[in-house]
Specification:
Lipocalin, two-stranded antiparallel ribbon, mainly beta
């Protein structure tokens, strides 16, 4: 008969703490997802690749799972590639403790994955006159982008891709049990 005493359980400090909004969490994608075959609301999964420290504490252990869904999806159009926003709403610590969070996959484009302009569909020859020598103009022909752009392409995040999640609201931690 195994009896578990309170002294057998390792506890974190009893002080509660917050991980602030704007905090970045490096993760890898556990599956491939794309605007070509995924829809808004489709579930996506991620995992932390290393221990994350804050206040000299390991606040998010390696192997923490994060789940979310595709929050917004834009199809490709002429001139713009497809785009999507991925919202992360749950964090599962390795000991099974579940924490609700509010965060997105971070990009410099307001957390929108994709959405870039496409290359020009046509180029126009344009002469540039550089100088006059002995009553003669020397010119260079340069190709400049035309007014039409190519059709956009779908954006895909591969399985195992390194990504960063940014918190939009602080996480209040009260979880105190450690699992060694």
């Amino acid at each position: 008969m195994n009896v578990c005493f309170a002294s057998d359980v390792r506890l974190r400090d009893y002080t509660e703490f917050d991980i602030p909004a704007g905090f970045h969490i490096p993760v890898i994608s556990l599956q491939e997802f794309s605007t070509a075959y995924c829809e808004e609301g489709d579930k996506v999964n991620f995992e932390t690749t290393s221990d994350i420290y804050l206040y000299n504490k390991n606040v998010i252990p390696q192997g923490t799972k994060l789940t979310g869904y595709i929050d917004k999806k834009n199809e490709p159009i002429i001139g713009t590639n497809a785009a999507m926003k991925v919202f992360i709403n749950k964090m599962y610590l390795p000991d099974g403790y579940e924490i609700p969070i509010k965060s997105y996959i971070y990009t410099a484009n307001n957390n929108l994955i994709g959405g870039e302009l496409t290359p020009p569909a046509t180029y126009i020859k344009m002469p540039h006159y550089q100088r006059w020598v002995m009553f003669r103009a020397f010119s260079t022909t340069q190709y400049v982008p035309g007014n039409k752009r190519r059709m956009g392409e779908h954006v895909t995040i591969s399985s195992g891709a390194n990504l960063i999640i940014v918190l939009t609201e602080p996480i209040h931690f009260t979880h105190i049990v450690l699992n060694d």
